[in-house]
Amino acid sequence: MKLMFVSDIHGSFFYAKKAIEKFEEEQADHLMIIGDVLYHGPRNPLPKDYNPAKVADLLNGYKTKIVAVRGNCDSEVDQMVLNFPMMGDYHMIMKESYKIFMTHGHLYNKNQMPELNKGDVFIHGHFHLPMAEKLEDIYYLNPGSITLPKENNPNSYAVLENDHFMIKDLEGNIIKEINLK
Predict the structure, then answer these.
(1) Whole-structure pTM value
(2) What is the DSSP-derived secondary structure letter of residue 145?
(3) At 125, is the secondary structure helix, strand, or coil?
(4) DSSP state, 64?
(5) Nearest to residue 169, comparing CAs of 157, 179, 151?
(6) How far apart are CA 44 and CA 39, in angstroms?
(7) Interaxial angle between packed helices 52-60 and 13-26, expressed in degrees from 0 to 180 and rounded to the nearest 10
(8) How far apart are CA 181 and CA 174, in angstroms?
(9) pLDDT tens track for 59-100
């Protein structure tokens, strides 16, 4: 199964379309949205083509392919226009030899970890920085931000296929990668 991860769309119709284009190009089975779907938040600039209603309509067309978690900029009113659940604080994906704990990053992060086992994967967004590293037998992954990357990083997304995690820019170039076994 091939999973594509995006984080921090922040209501940008331009970058939501880019995410869907990449989802189709990658031929992923599911689009994993790691929070901050519709709203840009008070600390972020207005993103390019800010239009939460159009983002909701676009994503609703993929509702059977989307697994999403709530970000710090997401609220109950957002859920009212989205046809897929996105209000959970985390989602667990069970693999044969490890589990993936997917969360936005504002509640659980490196400083506030959930209970994980050796070899498990902790994936989050929130910080808008791509990350793929293994620390103390836990894999820490962040696809970066599709809309508002920080620290001169490119707009990015990630793909997990056959226990290989790759963070890519919008041209499809691999920025970071790591094998999870």
Answers:
(1) 0.96
(2) -
(3) coil
(4) T
(5) 157
(6) 10
(7) 20
(8) 19
(9) 999 999 999 999 999 999 999 999 999 999 999 999 988 999
Candidates 170, 97, 96, 176; CA nearest to 133 is 176
DSSP character at residue 133: E
Domains of the chain: 3-179 (3.60.21.10)
Tell me the residue type at 123: I
Residue 53 CB coordination number (10 Å)? 11
Does residue 150 come out as left (phi exceeding 0), alpha (psi in the -120 to 50 range) or beta?
Answer: beta
Hey, how many other C-beta atoms are within 10 angstroms of the C-beta on 164?
A: 12
| Cβ atoms within 10 Å, residue 147 | 25
Helix (H) or strand (E) holding 3: strand 3-6
Give the span between the Cα atoms of 65 and 43, in whole angstroms: 30
Query: 128: closest CA among 100, 149, 152?
Result: 149
**Is residue 96 within a helix (H) or strand (E), and if so which, with residue range?**
none
